[in-house]
Amino acid sequence: MSGSLHRRLRCCLLGIMTLLAMQFVILVLVVRLGLIDELISRRLLLQQQQLSLHQHEWQDFVTHTPDQPHAFYQYNRQLSDNLAAVRLLPTTRHESCNRRRYALPHASLAKLSVVISFHNEARSMLLRTILTLISRTPQEYLHELIVIDDGSEDVGLLASLERHLTAAYAERGRPRLIFSRNLNRKGLIWSRNEGARLASGHYLLFLDSHCEVNDGWLEPLLERLTLNSRLAVSPLLDPIEPETLSYMAGNELLKGGFDWSLHFHWLPRVLADKETLAQPYTSPVFAGGILMISRESFRKLHGFNPHLEIWGGESIELAIKLWLCGGQIEIVPCSRIGHIFRAAHAFEFPPQYDQEQELEQELQQLGSAQATYLRNSKIIAESWLDEYKYLFYALKPSAREIPLNLRPVSTYDPAQIKAELKCQPFDWLMRHVSPELRLQHANLSALGTLRNAGRCLHVAGTVPQLQLLLTSCHSLQVTQWHLHHESGQLSTEQRLCLAVDAAAKQPQLSLEPCRAGQTGQHWLRRNTQLQHARTHLCLDNPLKDQLLLSRCRPHAVSQSFQFALEMEA
Ligand code: UD2
Ligand code: MN
């Protein structure tokens, strides 16, 4: 009796477990195959009458994607292909943004032209960007969409896109669709300028080709722009994870900034008294390159600097130019646009220098991406930094060797723009917009690369496997050092400090997290020597590329270390 009860119980339990396991497998499958998204999107498709492209057309377009390895896109292309054309996205903005009514101008006075330039974007990703934009933008404001194929390898893509979109939106006549293809790649900056040239709306929005606008993205931006004609705005960018394509909330406590090497950085900001997370806030530069500006302001500023090539720096230049010449920049957190932030460039950069050019060897060997960015940065420094450009060259000494030989691509001339628009000198920006630029060197007695006999002191590897060595000064990743005025700390950008372990039998050089009041991290500058305060020993490179500490010997070449930039005492 009890035996059969046992058996039945075991059977029952086994049954339940099998059922649970099956449910789990089904759940995993549903999630993996994006079926949930599919279901949601079907509902969405029914709800959103504006979206006129049918599921089979999406499939037809996407299945012609050429097969490429992961590195080609730097995100999960298969997953993108299987996700819905338009996904339901989480609401990431502050809930008060949903309740607000935005003061908008009549649509006939606020026509929007969206410019998307792409190079080698996956079909599903590009189409999702476009369809999401069309379905989440009030029809009456979305005047036109300008899509520029910047020499992509998938040669059939643009024509096919044009066919599908034109068929889908012809009836309602909106948005106006403009397609243009660069047979040879001309770069993002040229293409965005071209897009702006083709545009006819009142406002321009520059968008990357792997974005998903979130609900209600336009109204908060438009409201700000119509309140203040000197303004240009960015939405708050929500990151989309490249592998899972999950849509996450961006951070409202960050603004856009740059350092003296003209690299973009997110900077922390502090909320003022009573300021809420939903309020627009000023920012030294745009949230990356996704920005909205009146076409008239963009024209007055002569657009993006056409001397900048391929990729990089154009939105920083536009920001500097805008601030100095009477404009303002805001990030508007009630407007959300998702963007895939990729870990690495998905495309090659055309070589900047040919072997014939007389250049320092290291510069010649610089990767094309680095060389392009360095050249673009040099153009910006030369155009706008005035007497502060020495700080740029201190951090990027190899930029000095870059020949600019600007091709006469246009009449673009910063000096003329400054005169035309009565622009302020760069110093004004440091005083009123980017005080952090001033702080970046106020408490330093030296900064930049640290050179001994033509080689530079460099930290290789990551914690805990750090290595201190001497390397070529022209590699762009070479460590930039900061010698702090008061603490005597010699630190890297990662806040690692050069220290000496005095307890060991032989004092040893080491790298440790910078901490206030650590005497082991205190260095003294004696002419070109670096003397450790506690042990009185000097940094030395007696045998080629071997760093150690030894008794200080004035005039010893192996103990002479030059910073790229030394402040006057
Ligand atoms: C960032 C900006 C981007 C732009 C760029 C610097 C964000 C979210 N994005 O891009 O707006 O300011 O930095 O220039 O901050 N592309 C071309 N032709 C090329 C190379 C790229 O059309 O030769 C397209 C590309 O397909 C993409 C866009 O340009 O749509 C930006 O390139 P990215 O997405 O690879 O680089 P990202 O996101 O760092
Ligand atoms: Mn991008």
Secondary structure elements and pairings:
Layout: H1 2-32, H2 35-47, H3 55-62, H4 70-73, H5 77-82, H6 95-99, E1 112-118, H7 123-135, E2 142-150, H8 157-169, E3 176-182, H9 188-198, E4 203-207, E5 211-213, H10 218-227, E6 231-240, E7 254-258, E8 264-268, E9 281-282, E10 291-294, H11 295-300, H12 314-324, E11 328-340, H13 361-365, H14 368-384, H15 389-395, H16 414-421, H17 426-432, H18 435-442, E12 444-452, E13 455-460, E14 467-472, E15 481-484, E16 490-491, E17 496-501, E18 508-513, E19 523-526, E20 529-532, E21 537-540, E22 548-551, E23 562-566
Parallel strand pairs: 1-2, 1-4, 2-3, 6-11
Antiparallel strand pairs: 4-10, 5-11, 7-8, 9-11, 12-13, 12-15, 12-23, 13-14, 15-16, 17-18, 19-20, 21-22
Helix pairs in contact: 17-18
The structure holds uridine-diphosphate-N-acetylgalactosamine (UD2) and manganese (II) ion.
Manganese (II) ion binds at residues 208, 210, 339.
Domain Glycosyltransferase 2-like: 113-301
InterPro entries: Glyco_trans_2-like, Nucleotide-diphossugar_trans, Ricin_B-like_lectins, Ricin_B_lectin
Pfam families: Glycos_transf_2, Ricin_B_lectin
